[in-house]
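User: I'm curious whether this sequence folds into something compact or stays loose and floppy. Could you predict its structure so I can see for myself?
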Amino acid sequence: MSGKKEQDASAEKLSRIITEVVSIVHMRQKITEERFEQLVEKAVTSLPEYIRKKMDNVAIVVEKKPSAYELKQVGMKMGSLLLGLYQGVPKTAWNRSFGMRLPDKITIFQEPIERLASSAERIPELVRLVVWHEVAHHFGIGEREVRRLEEKWKRR
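Assistant: Here's the prediction. I'll summarize afterward.
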């Protein structure tokens, strides 16, 4: 084989290997919808009781993935990994003059969490972190402060 043909063959082989590695890396860890919902429920019940008691007028739901509208709401593009979303009026801004209002909504997105997980064993921890993150928003804690607290929590 000539030098050029050997280079082409090597480049083609390298390209196939890279494609295979990329597909393995992007392989989503999957669990059933039912199991994922159980993990979300467990994450909520594992929150300290004093926090759970103060959570009112908030629905926690599971969706497969965020819609284009939800991604746009938070300034993200399609294909971005939005793991959870809080929609509502934080408890720090709410007052009695609001009267009757719709419940706040916390959505936990299954597919992005599965994609981010390096293994199926990592999914419960990610779910717990995302639930905690979104509940913090319900209590009026901003994104910057939530991320700072997450870093502190990870060091424990």
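Summary: The longest strand covers residues 58-63. The mean pLDDT is 82.
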